[in-house]
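Hey team,

Filing this mostly as a record. A colleague (T.K.) asked me to run one chain through the structure pipeline before their review meeting, and I want the input and output archived in the tracker in case anyone asks later how it was produced. No errors, nothing strange. Just documentation.

Input sequence:
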Amino acid sequence: MSTPILTVAPAGTWSLDSVHSRVDFEVAYLAGRFKGHFNEIAAELTVDGERATLEGRAKVASIDVNEENLSGHLQGPDFFDAERYPELRFSAEDIRLDGDGQVSVNGELTIRGVTQPVAVTGRVTAPIADPYGNDRIGLDLTTTVDRTDFGVDWNQPLPSGEPALANDVTILAELQFVKPGSETS
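Output structure:
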């Protein structure tokens, strides 16, 4: 009796539907959580047998925190330094389906030219056919990284001496991937 192959998605190349996808981040700041997202993202998921790879990027200049001056500060040298490092990159060649739609991803994240290994977890939806004859899957991923590991060191001390901004940043990716369906026209 053969064991069924667990794959993240049916074989093929899956392109990101950027209109229906988001990459957000959040970090403890002052008395709450500071949140933002990137408006310009791209990704590709490739599935070949049991092997799945994921490549993704976000344009630093597209960072959005609902305040123009603050978005500009985040693009500057204190944070992401968009002029020198215009993109954040994620690459994974180890995506495992852990059962019941749970996925584990070992990959590499590059911020400010610094690449670090990251462990990412999340969920993948079962493939569905959309109204346009394409196949779709959803991939929701999350990880927490220490921003200082990537050279993002800016902070400001509070009167207590504690830092205003935490080092741990949670990254949340809600991604929809699409590929041409198996139907012929």
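Quick notes for T.K.: The radius of gyration is 18 Å. Confidence is low (pLDDT under 50) at residues 1-5.
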